[in-house]
């Protein structure tokens, strides 16, 4: 008799800067699969499935709902369309067991905290009001994620689709994985597991621990390095480059209006506004100059805390490209595939030759080629105009930033030509899908949730919670895979806990302010009674400051208040001859015999340094079909046995993706 297996569903909405895209997934109930005799199934995490049309996008980005009037329309003008789409797919009887995650990225990160809070709060309220989907608390399910978390989810999604989590062997000393690279418009991310045991040990504090649960209850453990660079995405890098050209031209001539750009094809020009001034950017079409002049944008001159150093002062484990394998998405794919038809296995000779040819082409010829459909139908005034720069930026990031060896330069090419199929050293490939499935970081998030619903009952005996444990040096809290459905109740809401906590903090704050107000009443007393009043209230004030010091905002206010009043305290004690109570200060000890009120400032140069701290310097700046996959690695880079090839995608260009 065949056991009936129930289906579970999950929703992740990626709320980015240009819009929100809903992704709907399903998987078989792990509890119903534990009796299976399939050892491969049991030693793997849940199998996540996404049907062909289970995704939908709406525009504009949620960050545009940043005024009170717009916030009130978040449901009607934004999320209602996506939720109705999901409700039409997921059976109504399972809505209560279907988790919904709404995770915002770059656009929301740029808003002020109060605007972020207003949007997130309204989002949670309208989802609860208009749906029955599983949303136990707003804090974990509706949030803004940082670049590192986004990169980690991407690494999870990639390695899941490539089958790296299947048949996890607890006894194996090493588990192979694939590195993840992502370059968006504003930022770039990388996430990988160092292949070297020495690097793993050496950089232990730099690595995050990612845990997954197999169907049999065993816990998978992966030590992953993840980093993000804000301002190093293709669009932001382009802006930085143009600003640097303008600054250099203005250094010689304040009235310079025409700016020569080596990364712009000859004959092309456009207007660019910087610091309220308009400049005419004119193309030189010089490939060599473009490549050299974009290198400084990596900011390799910024020192790292320790070697090895990647770029912009970011330290990380050494990448061994003889063993480490990487996949790049987003701009790594769009630039190579849409313009140069060089997506897939990375061939430096072939890509470099095509980039050089394009950059040195006349703009009129590029426009003619575009009309003939050569460049995937991309808009000439945006994508084609910036393609030379973006290609050179990708080259610099890969080879100078991450130090990917160039065939024929850092490693011998053995006489290979640009048209050869290179099988000797292919450590990097670009793609937008795996086996016909879209490669999205949202898959990594739902994989963690599905995995977290399995109890730790395997032979590992490890009850470690499923999720992401950030590196020691990051100082960030644990990112849970998800909560337990069976333990959920409508009263279990972190928002209520937050309100209680806020009420407690507010009570202490009010109490503290009241004490300070009472202390200020000393000003109506005679001077000779002032110090008596201070001494009488000292125990209460000390207690209030001790409690307040545990609350950052109160602590900062309290310390500043004490600094302002230190002079008065000193004067009172000087007048009354009570300097022995301030024996911890050598300067004050020298004046302890004085009984005359002195008009001096004993804080001169010393006191300020305790309270005026400079902020820390930020570490980051404010379709080819090749069914064999990667070849000649330690382990052949072969995709799992599925119908579609690794590179097959229904959306092969950014233009088609953007229109969806």
UniProtKB/TrEMBL annotation:
Q: Name one GO biological process term.
A: UDP catabolic process
Write the record's keywords in alphabetical order, separated by commas. ATP-binding, Hydrolase, Membrane, Nucleotide-binding, Transmembrane, Transmembrane helix
Provide the Gene Ontology terms for cellular component: Golgi membrane
Q: A single Gene Ontology molecular function, please?
A: ATP binding
Give the transmembrane ranges: 503-521
Q: Which Gene3D superfamilies match?
A: 3.30.420.40, Exopolyphosphatase. Domain 2
Active-site residues are 150 (proton acceptor)
Which positions are tagged coiled coil?
none
Summarize where ATP binds, as residue positions: 185-189
Cited CDD domains: ASKHA_NBD_YND1-like
- A Pfam family matched by this chain, by name? GDA1_CD39
The UniProt entry, under InterPro entries, shows: GDA1_CD39_NTPase
Q: Which family does it belong to?
A: Belongs to the GDA1/CD39 NTPase family.
Q: Which PANTHER family does the record cross-reference, listed alphabetically?
A: ADENOSINE/GUANOSINE DIPHOSPHATASE, NUCLEOSIDE-DIPHOSPHATASE MIG-23
Name this protein carries in UniProt: Golgi apyrase
């Amino acid at each position: 008799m065949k056991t009936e297996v129930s289906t579970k569903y999950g929703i992740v909405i990626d709320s980015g800067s240009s819009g929100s895209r809903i992704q709907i997934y399903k998987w078989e109930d792990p509890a119903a699969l534990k009796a299976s005799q399939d050892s491969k199934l049991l030693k793997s995490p849940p199998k996540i499935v996404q049907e062909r049309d289970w995704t939908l996008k709406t525009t504009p980005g949620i960050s545009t709902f940043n005024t009170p009037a717009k916030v009130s329309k978040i449901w009607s003008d934004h999320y209602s369309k996506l939720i109705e789409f999901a409700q039409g797919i997921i059976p109504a009887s399972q809505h209560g067991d279907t988790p919904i995650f709404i995770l915002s990225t770059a656009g929301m990160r740029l808003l002020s905290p109060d605007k972020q809070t207003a949007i997130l709060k309204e989002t949670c309220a309208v989802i609860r009001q208009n749906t029955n989907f599983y949303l136990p608390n707003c804090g974990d399910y509706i949030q803004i994620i940082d670049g590192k978390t986004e990169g980690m989810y991407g690494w999870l999604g990639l390695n899941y689709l490539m089958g790296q989590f299947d048949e996890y062997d607890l006894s194996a000393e090493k588990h192979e994985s694939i590195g993840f690279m992502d370059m968006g418009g504003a930022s770039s991310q990388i996430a990988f597991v160092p292949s070297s045991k020495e690097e793993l040990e050496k950089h232990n504090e730099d690595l995050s621990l990612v845990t997954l649960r197999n169907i049999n209850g065993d816990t998978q453990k992966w030590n992953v390095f993840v980093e993000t660079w804000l301002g190093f995405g293709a669009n932001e890098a382009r802006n930085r480059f143009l600003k640097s050209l303008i600054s250099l031209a203005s250094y010689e001539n304040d009235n310079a209006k025409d700016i020569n750009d080596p990364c712009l094809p000859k004959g092309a020009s456009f207007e660019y506004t910087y610091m309220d001034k308009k400049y005419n950017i004119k193309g030189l079409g010089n490939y060599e100059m473009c490549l050299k002049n974009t290198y400084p944008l990596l900011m390799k001159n910024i020192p790292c805390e320790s070697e090895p150093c990647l770029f912009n002062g970011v330290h990380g484990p050494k990448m061994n490209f003889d063993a480490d394998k990487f996949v790049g998405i987003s701009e790594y794919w769009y630039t190579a595939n849409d313009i140069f038809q060089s997506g897939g296995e990375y061939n430096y000779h072939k890509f470099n030759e095509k980039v050089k040819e394009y950059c040195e082409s006349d703009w009129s010829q590029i426009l003619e080629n575009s009309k003939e459909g050569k460049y995937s139908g991309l808009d000439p005034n945006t994508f084609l105009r910036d393609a030379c720069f973006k290609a050179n930026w990708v080259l610099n990031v890969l080879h100078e930033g991450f130090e990917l060896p160039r065939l024929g330069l850092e490693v011998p090419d053995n006489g290979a030509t640009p048209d050869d199929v290179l099988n000797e050293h292919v450590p990097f490939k670009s793609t937008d899908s795996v086996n016909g499935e879209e490669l999205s970081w949202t898959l990594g998030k739902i994989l963690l949730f599905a995995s977290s619903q399995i109890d730790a009952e395997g032979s590992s005996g490890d009850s470690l919670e499923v999720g992401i444990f950030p590196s020691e040096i990051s100082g960030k809290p644990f990112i849970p895979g998800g909560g337990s459905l069976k333990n959920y109740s409508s009263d279990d809401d972190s928002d209520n806990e937050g309100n209680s906590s806020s009420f407690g903090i507010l009570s202490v704050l009010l109490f503290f302010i009241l004490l300070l107000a009472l202390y200020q009443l000393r000003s109506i007393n005679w001077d000779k009674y002032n110090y008596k009043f201070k001494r009488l209230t000292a125990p209460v004030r000390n207690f209030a400051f001790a409690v307040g010091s545990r609350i950052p905002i109160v602590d900062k206010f309290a310390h500043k208040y004490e600094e302002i009043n230190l002079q008065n305290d000193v004067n009172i004690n000087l007048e009354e001859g009570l300097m022995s109570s301030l024996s911890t200060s050598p300067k004050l000890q020298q004046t302890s015999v004085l009984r005359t009120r002195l008009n001096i400032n004993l804080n001169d140069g010393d006191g300020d340094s305790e309270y005026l701290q400079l902020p820390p310097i930020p570490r980051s700046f404010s379709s080819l079909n090749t069914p064999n996959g990667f070849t000649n690695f330690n382990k052949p880079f072969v995709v799992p046995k599925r119908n579609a090839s690794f590179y097959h995608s229904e959306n092969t260009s950014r233009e088609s993706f953007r229109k969806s």
